[in-house]
Write a structure and sequence with these properties.
The chain is an all-alpha fold.
Amino acid sequence: VLPCYWIYWEVGKELKKTGSKDAAYQKWIDQYSGDAYGASVQKAIAIMNEAARGANADLLRRHYVLSSRYEYLFWDHAWRLEAWQP
């Protein structure tokens, strides 16, 4: 879950630099770049850091990177208009 939170926050902050003329997109940007959302991300990071104390750092890193890749693929599939293939 952490990569989802964190990536949305980073993307929101980056998009805020230019904004959007589309009100719906701007609302999304404002939500995910806002202080309240940022605070929730920082809390999620703190929870994960606490839970990870003493854990295998290499294993955690691999899981984080894999989860981040899944987030990327989620958006990439939407961008490519790919359909689910059961």
